[in-house]
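User: Sequence recovery, please. Input:
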């Protein structure tokens, strides 16, 4: 008994529509927010993520302050080439 090929197009339409229903919300979320939806996250997880971002930003600010202080210390020694690169790092922070 041969396979009834007239059943393939409706089956493909049904499977494609079902797959689209699952993929469309993910695509819209990624398009509007730039990241996938946070599934199974409560307020604790969101607070920890905010804290982590704040701690990382503070650490980066401390590192830039160290580079700027090294830059000021090197100015007394009169090394022009390293100062040029370090000055760019210090000035980059002031632009924001």
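Assistant: Recovered sequence (96 residues):
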């Amino acid at each position: 008994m041969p396979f009834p090929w007239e059943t393939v197009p409706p089956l493909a339409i049904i499977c494609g529509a079902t797959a689209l229903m699952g993929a469309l919300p993910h695509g819209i979320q990624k398009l509007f927010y730039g990241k996938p939806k946070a599934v199974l996250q409560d307020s604790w997880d969101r607070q920890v993520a905010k804290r982590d971002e704040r701690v990382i930003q503070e650490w980066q600010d401390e590192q830039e302050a160290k580079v700027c202080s090294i830059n000021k210390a090197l100015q007394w020694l009169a090394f022009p080439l390293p100062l040029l690169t370090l000055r760019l790092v210090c000035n980059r922070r002031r632009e924001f």
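The mean pLDDT is 80.
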